[in-house]
Amino acid sequence: MSPSTINVYVMLPGDLSPSLSKRSRMKQPEQGWVFLLLLLLAYFSHAEEQLCTHIGDPEFPQLLKDGDIMLGGVFSFHVSWNEVETLYEEKPPHLQCTSLNFREFQMLQAMLFTIEEINNSSDLLPGIYLGCKIYDTCGSIARSIKVSLALVNGNANVSATSEACARPAQVQAIMGEASSSPSMAIATVIGPFSVPLISQFSTCACLSDKSKYPSFLRTIPSDYYQSRVLAQLVKHFGWTWIGAIRTNDDYGNNGMATFTETAEQLGICLEYSLSFFRTDPWDKIQKIIETVRSSTSTVIVAFISDADMDVLLKEFSRANLTGYQWVGTEAWIFDFQSASRDNKRILDGAIGLSIPKANVSGLKEFILDVKPLYLTSNDLFVEFWEALFSCKVKQSEAGETQRLCTGHENLTGVENSFTDMSLMPMLSNMYKGVYAVAHALHNILGCNKACNNKLPLDPLTILQHIKRIHFKTKEGEEVYFDENGDPAAKYEIINWQPRENGPVSFVSVGLYDASLPADEQMNVQEKAFPLPHPAQEVKATLFIHYISSEYIKYKYSCRFLNKVLSPGTMSAGWRPEWRLKLFCLLLASSLSLAEEQTCTHRGDLEDAQLIKKGDIMLGGVFSFHSSWRNSQDDYEQKPRQLQCTSLNFRDFQFAQAMLFAIEEINNSSDLLPGVTLGYKMYDACGFIARSVKVALTLLNGNDIEALPADACTRPAQVQVIMGETSSSPSAAIATAVGPFHIPMISHFSTCACLSDKTKYPSFLRTIPSDYYQSRALAHLVKHLGWTWIGAVRSNDDYGNNGMATFTDTAEQLGICLEYSVSFFRTDPPDKIHKIIEVIKSSNSKVVVAFLSHMDLDVLLNEFSVNNLTGYQWVGTEGWMFDSQIAAMDKNRILDGAIGLSIPKAHVSGLREFMFNVKPLNSSNSELFTQLWEALFSCKFKQSNSAEIQKKCTGEEDITTVENSFTDMSLMPIFYNVYKGVYAVAHALHEILNCNKTCDINVQLDPYTILQHLQRIHFKTKEGDEVYFNENGDPPAKYEIINWQRSDHGILNFAAVGLYDASLPADKQLNVKIGSIVWAKNSLQLPVSVCSEKCPPGTQKVLQKGRPVCCFDCIRCAEGEISNSTDSVTCVRCPLESWSNENRTACIKKEAEFLSYKEIMGSLLTAASLFGTCVTVAVAVIFIKYRKTPLVRANNSELSFLLLFSLKLCFLCSLTFIGQPSEWSCMLRHTAFGITFVLCISCVLGKTIVVLMAFKATLPGRNVMKWFGPTQQRVSVLGFTLIQVIICILWLSISPPFPSKNFKEFKDKIILECSLGSAVGFWAVLGYIGLLAMLCFICAFLARKLPDNFNEAKFITFSMLIFCAVWITFIPAYVSSPGKFSVAVEIFAILASSFGLLFCIFIPKCYIMLLKPEKNTKKNMMGKGAPK
User: Fold this and answer.
1) Strand locations in 989-1028 (E)
2) Model-level pTM?
3) Any bridge partners for residue 1402, and if so which?
């Protein structure tokens, strides 16, 4: 094997490596375009034979039908493939596809039906027959691209020597793919060749971007409309708190991004937004299930494909998660297969959007007739038939007996996804797409009764005519495309309505038509359906194998396609998004056939701007110019060469730093002794396509024609590429050179995406990744207390990836973005004006600017025009240490800015070397002349214009010039270039086994250099360590810079802190806040919050429809406190505590009970004692007058017992006053009950005595013997004993006990006696009431006694008062709170006691004391003077 030949196995997309196919299947949408670059291996190869040949196994179509005009078709007849373990030592096996996809067979049949209908038509393309080539992609994006290239280039094994390598496309249009990600990949490949690609089911809004996908069209509306309609539908039903799940691919991510943006505008909040892919590990999907289960939202918006919905549905069924209101997209909402799998009715009631129902007469019958498949491909037909009927055409060798296929099985009896016609709208889309091509061809060929079939067909012409077509199908549907290649957006609103017996019914409940006025676009018939609840960039797969030359059957031409690299085909509008499209264009040559027998270059040659020969060559890609002139090409002549404009002094500085390092190494006796480093530097002109072109030129060389004996394959011409400055071109170059393991070292490309070694395996850099910078910025913003900010970013890889990481970290830290806007410096002015309006209308005062210095120039100019000042800027290293930006800030808009910068650096001798630009003259006099004239504003040669210009002498002093070239503020970046060159030198030093000399016979291999670069670890002469981590990144360390302007107006970049990612998390950020000067030269830290912090005593309540940083401070409710700032919730105080007035602390509740010390307690005590004293006084009077007739006549024994019991009644009320205790609680009710029964018993005895005495005066009556003194004592004792028994039972079973009542008053504790048993309490009262009623009745019966003996009347009146008091006591007691209920009970005791005392005894005392003349027996017997 020749040492000059690179021998590798190239595994094309169809040949899947197991190591990478696993990655592809696990996350296929994230596989990059990298595989395309593998094809470039052939591109840089020299032919061993003199024939134009093809590398790799040819791809043959699965279905082929010849015709006058051929159409291509790309379908996933299989959805997976077998993984094969390969050892990288032999030719990889061919891709083995598995798992038939019946739906794609339906799409194929729809295409065949349409072609047959057109061929049979005499009105459309008369005399012209359409043919087709159909390929199977197996669900692999990589294979999709491979077969699309096979469609465009053909598949001939070996060409005739006279046949040209370049030839017309083999098909005029390609139909497919059904998914967005493969469609994006194919559109990127064939777009530059203007081959139309028409998809029937790729809905990603990103595909409407004609700058990326110029030849893509579709017959299904863009998800841009669907996403917005879904958001409006959710808003229509009043759902503002929802969850969202999406497929982790271009379809789901782009669709959900538009939905989220629209939802936020409509005031809808997402509780969660989750993504997954059907091949994700089980535990990831389980996390989604747990998130949904723990959420509070009951509405789920599902932006997922039908295949992913199947996976999710299984997990929901397993977890028994039902009752959610699903909102779906057209991918699954009208999918009968998904409905049939929903056994647990999880999706019942789902509502969503679907393509309007369609019908194509004859299509269903044609689909069910699979004979056309049989005529075109036996193998595919056999596999399809066996899967359809679960039979075998031939018995397998295994012992298992399988049913044999007869070939006459009845297809109409089969029920599966092939016979299911629910996707007829998509089949209609395929029908319309083929007809669109036919109508375009009809117009091009000038068809009337016949067509001019001699006209040469050109894909670009066909594309232009397709864009202009406007016709009606036989079903009356209009077909046309807008400027983005999209049809009119029209959706049916579908509702899944369950039926009692059988599957759900897809009911149309509304319509959306984007062509109508905004207020009439959506029409929802809410009464028509029941709801269960109220309220990426496309990436292909890369597979590399080491193959020997005997497997290379076909060789690619070494020509470049001139059109690819010309400015005529790539305008300024392409910007970073075109960085990968260029690769696909290069493949044109790799799939061509050679015209001559020599390996030649196609297109204009690229000469290096700076070159110096050496033993080992290093490449450099810098943008010496920052722009280019746009040129209009008519595609009728060779496009003009790219004309670069606007010298970029900064990249001259970077180039000078590289030259300085190379010269220093060449002059060193310690590093690479005896080996001279040379260089080739190219100008990329700030144009990504050109960056890739010159990078490939660095690898491939720039020879016009190779010698016949030379091989097309040869070693790379440079060992390493230094550059580029920006992330987007670096990503493009790294994608191109990565598969060849050519190391690329960037000094200023910070995008975190470049750390992905699966995409950029050979990329390294000497500047930290934006992953660290973005996180550091978020932590800095949080550290300064700013939670409500705005964000502006460059619309490229640097800005978008950096801001994405910043946003994620900010959300974790509780920081909210009021707005996040993006732009690119070449955007139209109105877009930038909109950004200005957004910032102007915002209330956040902090702006985080993730911008390149060139984009900030544009924004700064607009801020100046609008006089927008006073904002606190937070910046990145892209502009934070840029004195040129500071010089342009005339209005001091950025004063006080704070941000991150690469730590200051110094390289001795570099400044002096940089100012010496004359050595450039020896490398490139033209470039030197441009630089010199721009530096000194002079001309070496006078132009023909009348303007007189200063003449250059060549002796001007550069030290007298002040511009960005002489500005050394970017010395840290120059140092990065310096370290990168030294890293290469150290790696080469090890490889060449250098000591005092180097072994120059060692064959250098880029992969070996890359491996050594990844392991190097050395110190520069300045003492800084240089090494790379596993991602090719250096350690992350940033200075925190503050723009401080002095009194004299001089701006100083002051270091006010440090961020070091290598330290522990709590020590990484160190900021000296006291040293910072803020916006408007203020020393006061600015405040930028949506809502001020909530003080202690309040809680945060989120404002409806706004971010979490916007909230209201609501005072804590009574009994709740918050003792910290920004408390999310108020904490309820313990039961015995209560919140203070400020709601900041819990204080012990005041204990309340009826106390002797308070007025009410004192009055009641006094009343009780007064009653006791009166009772005692009455008893004394009765004792004194006990022998008088009045006392003796009123049963003196019962009277004294009654007075005793009344005294006890008055005293028992005292037990109710004071703090309850166990003994007082038991005593108060029992004492009250027993004493009152004793009292009532005595009154009852007196009443009976009076009644008996009256009855005894009648002749023949001797009743007094039945109620004498003994009987009276027994009755009183008996009545009282019953109450005693009741009380004993009460105390034994459930006695009263002291308790704390927290219910009556929130801020007080009522100390009271709980009854224990309410039955016991009411039994005691009831018994007293019973005796009182009995006493009242007896007294009432004795009311007609003689007037002089009025005992019965007094008893009646006293009992009337007693009953009235206790009857009113019941409602008063029940309704009185706290201690007042005790007071009511005491009052009732005293009132009834005083009633008895006054009514029964006071009249008698009155007679005894004041009317003694009436206290005689005569008077008692009623024998006084007659009335």
Assistant:
1) 1017-1019, 1025-1027
2) 0.48
3) none
